[in-house]
Amino acid sequence: MSRTIKFANQPQDFYTALSQRVNYYFKSNQISRTANSEMVIKTIFMLLLYFVPYAISISGLVTTFPLYLLVCLVMGLGIAGIGLSIMHDANHGSYSNKPWVNDLLGYSLNVVGGNAFNWKIQHNVLHHTYTNVFDVDEDISPRGALRMAPESPWKSFHRFQFAYAWLLYGLLTLVWVFGKDFGRLVKYQREGLVKKQRANIYTEWAVLIATKAAYFFYTLALPMMLLPFAWWQILVGFLAMHYVAGFILAIVFQPAHVIDGTAYFQPDANGNLENNWAVHQLLTTTNFAHRNKILSWYVGGLNFQVEHHLFPNVCHVHYRHLSSIVRDTAREFGLPYKMKETFWDAMVAHTKLLKQLGTDKEFRPVMVSA
């Protein structure tokens, strides 16, 4: 990040009151802000969802390609589950009050082909701090085929992005696995972000290369050596696995910030944003499907994105219980608490914004309170 961006020096009354109420909730109920037994059970389930199908496939029990492909699709569900419900909390430091536990579980991202160090910079530092700030929040920065922000250059083919975006979403994890992790580490080193994390660049490169090599070995090379399938069939299974994972991750994260009624902000000439950090999060973040307990369980509580952005150091199993506190406090201070009632509503609103950004190069979203 080449420029210094500062949030407005506004009164912090809202976040002070909210923090006090959230702290009281945990203290009065005598519970920890980190993982509980429910979270441990979920962790075991998500790991098994990925590794049991892998073990079955690599054991030779799967002898037909259609069945092998089905196993790979289930593994894709496991990758998304690990990303949403394990590594996400761990890399936020909210899984445990023991740093080594967070570090260990955070590396589950490396196990499924990603890179925890890059993710923490991209997600924790850039996205969570500067949500929906163009050219800083990489979730909405230029992506070529997709225009996710009003400041992003408009191309004529963006008129159709509301339709083809859904096809591209499945490529999310493949892009990271094969290329983006390498490019991002170079970028973060050049911009001084590696140094700001007090990390050793040589160590991070060694970890990146070693874990990528191990990942490609056990997911591609080993099956090609052991299984009775052609190399291209193994590759098709690998691509299908990641397509499922990428699509799930994209449709969970995109509606939280790229959705009809959201806000985008740009700093002024002096690098100042118009709101303080907490208000900025409320204006740029939207919840969805708050009553859908099954969806919430699988997606790691990330349908409660408002709570997550305000309290990223709290394990997601608590978001549902904090939501009424956050909602009531926001309304008390005259601030929005944005939410779509169902997952379908969120998808429709996301599609609407994609269409507006794709058809109108001068489009600026109109903020709504809910």
Short structural description:
With 370 residues, this protein is mostly helical.
Fold and architecture overview:
By secondary structure, this protein is an all-alpha fold. It has one domain (13-359). It contains 16 helices and two strands. It has helices at residues 13-28, 37-58, 65-92, 99-106, 108-111, 116-129, 161-169, 172-190, 193-196, 201-226, 231-257, 277-284, 293-298, 305-310, 319-332, 343-359; strands spanning 287-288, 339-340. Strands 1-2 form a two-stranded parallel ribbon. The protein is globular and about 65 Å long.
Task: Give the helices and strands, then pairings.
Layout: H1 13-28, H2 37-58, H3 65-92, H4 99-106, H5 108-111, H6 116-129, H7 161-169, H8 172-190, H9 193-196, H10 201-226, H11 231-257, H12 277-284, E1 287-288, H13 293-298, H14 305-310, H15 319-332, E2 339-340, H16 343-359
Parallel strand pairs: 1-2
Helix pairs in contact: 1-15, 2-3, 3-4, 3-11, 7-11, 7-16, 8-10, 10-11, 11-16
Shape: globular
Low-confidence stretches: none
Q: How many domain units?
A: 1
Per DSSP, the total helix count is 16
Q: Look at the structure and give the mean pLDDT.
A: 95
Number of strands: 2
Radius of gyration: 21 Å
Secondary structure: helix percent:
55-70%
Q: Termini, distance in Å?
A: 32 Å
Structural class: mainly alpha
- What's the helix-strand series? HHHHHHHHHHHHEHHHEH
Strand content: under 5%
What is the strand arrangement across the widest sheet?
Answer: 1-2
| Main sheet overview | 2 strands, parallel
